[in-house]
Amino acid sequence: MKKIDLIKICKNLEIVGDGGKLKFPLHYKITKNKVEFWYETKSGRFEPQPITFSRFIPLNQITLKVFGLIQAEATKVNYTVFDFSNSNPDLIKIIVNYFEKLWLIPRRLWKCEITYWKGKINKELEKGIKSFWSSLLKISPNQIKIREGTSYRLSKKSKSKYGVVSLRLPNKVFRSTIIHVLKNYIYPSVEKNSNLAGYYLCGLLSGDGTIVLNGNSISYIGLAFNPNSDELNHYKKVLNILNITPNLSSINHVERKNIQITGWKNFYQILKVTNCEPFISVEKNIKFYKGFLNNQYVKSLLRLEEILKLNEISAQSYSKLFRVCERSAHDSLTRMFNLNILSRMKRGQKYVYFINPEGKEFLKIMKCLRNKLEVK
């Protein structure tokens, strides 16, 4: 497994002071497989807190998913603290567990600021919320602070029984290191390697992705971006390496700030590149699976399961098997051939079709989705 060597990646890193003007060189000390990072101010009026990391970070599925989450939900402009905001308890827990296990970051360093509805908070509720997050994250209640949020900041979408969490680690070196690894190592890696980009996309969608339905089927997958940053260009490169084609009109829309991914082929590609887990959230995955399987084109393709039982099929035998006219059968088989899930050969004046490896993979993924829905 490939590993990220923090010494190689961060040896020329400069810590940016408040306001982004002053820059201080990073110093480090290696102890076995750990590295201690710190910086010194020119005036020497205060001593910045050093921080110790595991030197080698595995470039595995969880690392790519977490950095996708960080790209989507962590602030990039605050030079003082690392700040990750979300209302999903599972995602907050993943961040804390990941950095403790793979980066050796103690839980005691984290701070939680929880925003709750203005006018709804009381002492009993505050105690319950603190108890929930303290138990979930295994941190002291003293590390948790609750504030009342204004109504316009707490939309129906962001409202949560346990509030919206701003997970913070107030250490400039930590914040600078994470963002530096993200932009100088993760970015180029996922933009050029589809095997890595799929897991990263899962993190992106889990943080900034939405599923919009039209009836029971997926209308589009939305991926929000900041128009005042390099996010759009980065996201387009990630989608391109994964052979996912976004809706160009949604990108060029003046007021819209999200990429819309439409069409069942793109949805199918998302399933393929994420190993059938486009989201970290089980609830969102279930919504995706149902919306995909209810697509009218996907429903017709599920007839491949019957075709697989046969060695070959013609338009005539297809029409008898599925009780449709021969012209409709011909159109369906031609569509599957054009999608490269059926192959064909000419026999006399007509074609006969048989399922190919891509078609078998499609059926394997459909079986995977149905199995996941059964055990939800």
CATH architecture of the domain at 194-293: Roll
Strand content: 15-25%
CATH superfamily of the domain at 194-293: Homing endonucleases
At the fold tier of CATH, the topology name of the domain at 194-293 is Endonuclease I-creI
Class of secondary structure makeup: alpha+beta
Helix content: 40-55%
Query: How many strand elements?
Result: 16
Strand order of the largest sheet: 2-3-4-5
Report the top-level CATH class of the domain at 194-293. Answer: Alpha Beta
Offer a few descriptive terms:
Arc Repressor Mutant, subunit A, single chain, 4-stranded antiparallel beta sheet, 376 residues, 4-stranded mixed beta sheet
